[in-house]
Write a structure and sequence with these properties.
Blueprint: H1 10-23, H2 27-69, H3 73-92
C-alpha cells in the first residue's frame, strides 16, 4: 500500500480522529472509506447529469419532430408515455 503525506486544518484532523475512534477504525481507514464513498458518489452524480442532459436533448428533438409533423406538445407527452409503457411491457416478458 502506498503512503502519502497530506495537509489539512487541525480541526478537520481532530474530527477525523474522533469519528475514526467512534467507528473503531484507524484514521487511514476512515480516510480511505471516505475517499471511496466520495468517488462513487461523484461518479453517480456525473452519470445522473449525463442522463438528464440526454433526456433533455431527446425531449427537444421530439418536440421539433412533433412540430414538423403537426403534433402538439400535449400529444407528444402522450406518445412518450405510450412508448415507455410499450418498452416496459417488452422488458416484463
Amino acid at each position: 500500500m502506498t503512503k502519502l503525506n497530506i495537509s489539512m486544518p487541525q480541526q478537520l484532523l481532530e474530527q477525523i480522529d474522533s469519528e475514526a475512534e467512534l467507528l473503531g477504525i484507524t484514521r487511514s481507514g476512515l480516510i480511505q472509506e471516505a475517499s471511496v464513498r466520495y468517488i462513487a458518489r461523484s461518479q453517480t452524480d456525473r452519470e445522473a447529469e449525463a442522463r438528464r442532459l440526454r433526456a433533455t436533448a431527446a425531449a427537444k428533438r421530439m418536440k421539433r419532430i412533433g412540430a414538423d409533423i403537426g403534433i402538439g406538445s400535449s400529444d407528444t407527452a402522450s406518445l412518450v408515455a405510450e412508448a415507455r409503457a410499450a418498452e416496459s411491457s417488452r422488458h416484463d416478458r
